[in-house]
Fold this protein.
Amino acid sequence: MATLETGAGSSTIVFAAGGADHEAVSPSAAEHEAIRAACSRLGVSSERVRFHVGLSQEVLPAREPRPLDLALVDGAHGFPYPVLDWWYLAPQLKLGGIVLLDDAYMPPVGMLVDFLRRSPAWQVLPAIGYRTVPVRKLADEAPPPDWEGERLGGGLSFAYLPPGSRAVASTRHRVFSSRAGLATVRVLRRRAGFLFR
């Protein structure tokens, strides 16, 4: 598969392990070296992974485009960066290809999910876990140039999940995003031996 992600980390190792012809865009060369080292320790070949050092809003329009089967948008999460990542990647995605929008509960990503849900050129698929929304490309079609009155964005939301899962996801996020929750996660990661030591 031809794949690309904005951001890099454990997902990059997964793409490498799957044998994808993969590109990762992130601003940290040190992070890229740590990922290659982790691949080596795990016995995963990273020879088909190409890293682009830089901000995605600068790298994506400058790199040589190619047809993509799958893209993961998981770089900068502030507005408008998820939208820009999607904008630059959407024309390269093959028909039937998938964009994974990570951290969809955050308003800048949620706004993009809201827009794509209403677009006839895209199909929002059931969420993966409580934070990632896959979207399938159905047509090569640019968004309309004018706003058509649709509601986009808002506050933190898990509206893309089935109703029964929303309360669980919201509670989980609020608990683990608190200071105490983040401290607990750090302790658990240290005990588990996090990959990038």
Remarks:
- The mean pLDDT is 89.
- The CA atoms of residues 44 and 152 lie 41 Å apart.
- The first helix runs from residue 10 to 17.
